[in-house]
Amino acid sequence: MNTGIISSRYATALLRYTQETGGGERVCTQVRRLLEHPGERPGPLEPELERLVRLLVKNGRLEDVRFVFRSFIAMYYHSRGIELARLTTVVPAEDLEHRLRSLLEKQFGCEVLIEASVDPDLLGGFTLEVGDYLLDASVRRQIETIRRQFVISNNRIV
After folding, report:
1. Do residues 114 and 87 make contact, with C-beta atoms less than 8 angstroms apart?
2. Distance of CA 14 to CAs 36, 81, 152, Å?
3. Are 101 and 114 contacting, i.e. CB atoms less than 8 angstroms apart?
4. Which residue from 61, 60, 127, 77 is spatially nearest to 100, judged by alpha carbons?
5. Is the pLDDT score of 2 beyond 80?
6. pLDDT by residue (tens digit) across 3-58?
7. I need a labelling partner for 20 at 20 to 30 A (CA). Which of 96, 115, 146, 157 fits?
C-alpha cells in the first residue's frame, strides 16, 4: 500500500480524535517539536499521541511515523484555516519572513505560518514552498539555469 495513503489515514484519524478531545493544539505543538528535534527524548507524550504511537506499533507501521506526523500537521492547520509555508534562506532573514507573510496572507486571505530554515547550499536568495507551489529564487538555481543554457547553446556536456 502507498505510504501517502497510509499516513493520510492515520493522520486523519488522529485529527478527528484530537477534535473530539479538544487537544489539537497541544498535539500539534508536540508533533512539531518531535519532528524538529528527532534525537531528543520527548518526555511524556500527549494522551492522543501516545494512543496513535501504540496503534502504529501494533500495526507494524512505526516506520511511517514521520509521514503521519507531517500529514497531521498539514491537516490540522488546514482545518484551522492556516496556510503553512516553508522558507529556506542562506542566513536567518526575519525581515523577509515578515514581508512574505503579509504578502501571502493578502494572497490567500488567511493566516500564514512560516517555518523558516537555513541552508548555506543556496548560496544566496531563498526558496518558498506553499502547498504544491515552489518559488525558487536561489542563486544556486540561477547558476544551474545558466549552466544548462550554456550546455544547450554549445551542444555539448560541460
Report:
1. yes
2. 19, 18, 50
3. yes
4. 127
5. no
6. 788 889 999 999 999 999 998 999 999 999 998 888 887 789 899 999 999 999 99
7. 115
